Amino acid sequence: MPGRRMHFGPAGKPVSMKSGDYVKAIRVVAEMGLDAIEYEAVRGVRISESKARAIREAAEEHGVIVSMHAPYYLNFAALSDETRRKSVERLRAAVRAASWMGAYAVVFHPGYYKGHESRESALRLTIESLQPVIEFIDAEGIRGVWIAPETTGKSSQVGSVEEVVEICRSLGKHCRPAVDWAHLYARSEGGFVTSTDQVIKVIEYIEKELGTWAVKPLHTHFSKIEYGRGGEREHHTLGEEGYGPDWRTVCRGYRETGIEGVVISESPILEKDALLMKKICVEEGYT
Ligand SMILES: [Zn+2]
User: Fold this and answer.
1) CA proximity to 267, closest of 180, 209, 202, 169
2) What's the gap in Å between 172 CA and the centre of ligand 1?
3) Phi/psi at 61 (nearest 5 deg)?
4) Who has the most CB within 10 Å: 9, 79, 180, 197?
5) Which positions ≥6 away from 16 have C-beta within 8 Å?
6) Residues lining ligand 1 (ion), CB within 5 A?
7) CB 190 within 8 A of CB 227
């Protein structure tokens, strides 16, 4: 998207759409003035190759950046061989579908610390278990699709900023971090993502550790979020008082670092809040 540094869109089809598929959703998103969409494969990857290719065509026609959210039930840190094997299969299927639809990032939750004596051992197993996915991407000759471990919203889940960066650094290629600001806020029980300086720190850390390509664009999620002990409870709209983090604070971090960002709205009113986030960045002089 030449000339634009910030790209906004919904996590899934717009809620205003009563019927229709992602091809229609892409048109609707573009007509609203948005230019990104995340295809939700959270309950499994079921799309056919021809439908996925139609999504790619529509996205190219309308100038919309496509990403994909992989199934929720993945756990690359699982102690069960069977669970890790299935996780690999599911992420491979997501990557293959992403390559058909031109999705540049496949966002996924890496796994859980449960059963591990330390966070380090969960992280090590996660990295080791993801290796076959990287080998698959190479073997299939897939280009332009990154697996994107996401910062997670619960303290029981692998997925601090440092951990997603370490996963990508260790895998060496085909991996870029996805930053969910709401999750970082919930994970820290409201202690983090409360100032623009903290946002800048995260962005600069990723760029320093992995390189400028990782923030060009930086794949991100945003909404307000409710948290309790252990982290996230549920997503809220930008208009709801009493929840954080604050989008303006985060947008200023993008502006100060000058990076390119894809921002996927995970608010209950997906596309409306994507538009509001865009409006706020325009006010801040950064689009
Ligand atoms: Zn997610």
Assistant:
1) 180
2) 22
3) -60, -40
4) 9
5) 28, 271
6) 150
7) yes
Q: Distance from the CA of 27 to the center of ligand 1, in angstroms?
A: 24
Residue 134 has pLDDT above 80, yes or no: yes
Residue spans per domain, the chain: 6-283
Q: What is the pLDDT of residues 153-177, one digit of tens each?
A: 999 999 999 999 999 999 999 999 9
Cβ burial of 172 (10 Å; 0-12, 13-18, 19+) is exposed
| pLDDT for residue 4 | 79
How far, in Å, from the CA of 158 to the mean position of ligand 1? 12
Answer yes or no: are the C-beta atoms of 185 and 154 closer than 8 Å.
no
Task: State both tokens at 52.
Answer: 């996925």
In whole angstroms, give the CA distance from residue 130 to residue 165.
14
Burial, 197: exposed, middle or buried (Cβ in 10 Å; 0-12, 13-18, 19+)?
Answer: exposed
pLDDT (mean) for 105-124: 98
- pTM as predicted: 0.96
Question: Could you tell me the end-to-end alpha-carbon distance of the chain, in angstroms, rounded to an integer?
Answer: 11
Beta bridge partners of 224: 236
